Amino acid sequence: MLLRPRTDDHLVIGKYTGKVIIGVGLLMVVPLITAIVFAEWDTVLDFVISIAACLVFGFGTQLICRTDRDLSWSHGLIVASGSWIIATALGAMPHWLSGHEGSYLDAMFDVMSGFTTTGLYMMQDLDHIAHGLNMWRHLLTYTGGQGIVVVALTFLFKGTAGAYKTYVGEGKDERLLPNVVQTARAIWLVSLTWLVVGTTALFITGWALGQEPVRAFLHGLWVFMGAWSTGGFAPQSYNTMWYHALSYEIVAIVIMIAGSFNFAMHWAVWTGKRKEILRNVETVSFAITLTITVLIATFALAKAGVYPDAMSLFRKAFYQLASGHTTTGFSTVYARAFVTQWGPIGLTATTIAMAIGASACSTGGGIKGIRMGVMFKAFVQDIRRAVSPEAAIVRAKIHHVRDIYLDDGLVRTTMTITIAYLSLYGLTAIVGTLYGYDFLQAAFEGVSAASNTGLSCGVTSPSMPDVMKVLLLCAMWLGRLEFMSVFALGGYGIAMLRGRR
Amino acid sequence: MNGRTTDGLTRREKWPRYATGLLVETGFVLGLTLVALGLALLAEAVF
């Protein structure tokens, strides 16, 4: 029986959503300062208007929704999914005001793509946008990678009992430390340390390649944010192909693969369990599936003679596959090259890598390594049971920070989420095909959006039908939040309309 | 972030372990990169 939500439910959801939106408004101060430093006065005005809108919404909601009640589990899920939509709608204001977007829907598409660390974009004339707006694009993806709620948890929630519930709603259900606010801070510690190291490495590389220092620093910072968050945004329309440098590509690969690791795995390695990286089910699964997909693409490209030597083949194949598998979306080939040069096998290998995706509780998307590990172990366990004597007890385990024995509940949950991802991949491919795109290309683009990757074979563009834009936008949202919190929001809406009092 | 606000996470004596962890992760990625280079050389030799 569905119960109609009470006023108290609306108040508590409104209060916490308001806090998250205040966080988004405060985040805009960084691009505002950037625009002031570079004397981009039109952009300054765009951000002043946008910050004002976020603060009016956030404080206004808090003023209206005054309650001492804390969040329940269902509230947490609804706040997580609802605040992502409102943050997208308000976060799109600077994009739209800049004049670089064809419509407000395009601006929302780009912001959802940033928050969900996807990397697909509709922005026009990207090479000539203001530094302030570029900072906003990359900050969206960096904070989206940690999770908007993690940002609010760290700075605004101050350890409330309900905070963990919104954290779970954002698809991050691991505690690195006993307290969820400590966990959020540990995630930030790892991310900020990598920010300093990664940006410095890219800055030095860019400078050595001939960029002037300020430009080298800004590009280093933005490419780091795009790589670490597995977001895939870059400051140039040619993405990372613009740098044409093996050294830059290697540094980017290190950052994007590190960014795709589970924060719990990071924390284990960083606190002395060094062998965890070789034992963890997600890193083992990632190493195996990445090697297989790189092998397929490399041999297909070598057979077709697309690249003249082994080094070119390595640079193109490994970069695209690592980018796809980590769900980053950086690219060093033209979008249409996936179709015209890579062919069906290369395109399929990349699609499979994107579909599998990164680690759970990371900045990445996709089905996730831990689910691949669970399904594989469950499959092996069933075979072993079938060939063992009836009285034998066959138990399978995975290693993720500690040993975890498989039970039916774990396997069922894993299968449910995996089937949800596969259904979403299928839906986007079918709708794309109905709109006249080739099936393989529609599947590539749909999987890219739903797994929050951002590689494109040329389907995503401002001229794409609005229905496709909305579908891919929703696919990014569903994929990033791993379905449950979005379904909870849908259920809340239905309960408001049809629930019993 | 200082020691007080991050519950001791940033205490000075912890940084050598953090740095080692970061290097271990970098080494793992570079290992995967070498495997991919090996595959490219193999593919060139085969075709």
Fraction in beta strands of chain A: under 5%
Q: Structural class per helix/strand content of chain B?
A: mainly alpha
Query: What would the principal axes of the Cα set say about the shape of chain B?
Result: rod-shaped
Q: Please tally the helical runs of chain B, counting DSSP H or I stretches of 4 or more residues.
A: 1
Strand content of chain B: under 5%
Query: What is the share of helical residues of chain A?
Result: 55-70%
The strand line-up of the biggest sheet of chain A is: 1-2
Question: Could you tell me how far the N terminus lies from the C terminus of chain A, measured between alpha carbons in angstroms?
Answer: 11 Å
- Give the uncertain stretches of chain A in residue-range form: none
Radius of gyration of chain A equals: 22 Å
Total of DSSP H or I helical runs spanning 4+ residues of chain A: 23
Walk me through this protein's architecture.
The complex is a heterodimer of chains A (501) and B (47). Chain A is mostly helical and 501 residues long. Chain A is 68% helix and 2% strand. Chain A has 23 helices and two strands. A two-stranded antiparallel ribbon of chain A has the order 1-2. In chain A, helix 4 crosses helix 9, helix 10 crosses helix 11 and helix 12 runs parallel beside helix 16. Chain B is mainly α and 47 residues long. Chain B is built from one helix and no strands. Chains A and B meet through helix 10, helix 12, helix 13, helix 15 and helix 16 of A and helix 1 of B.
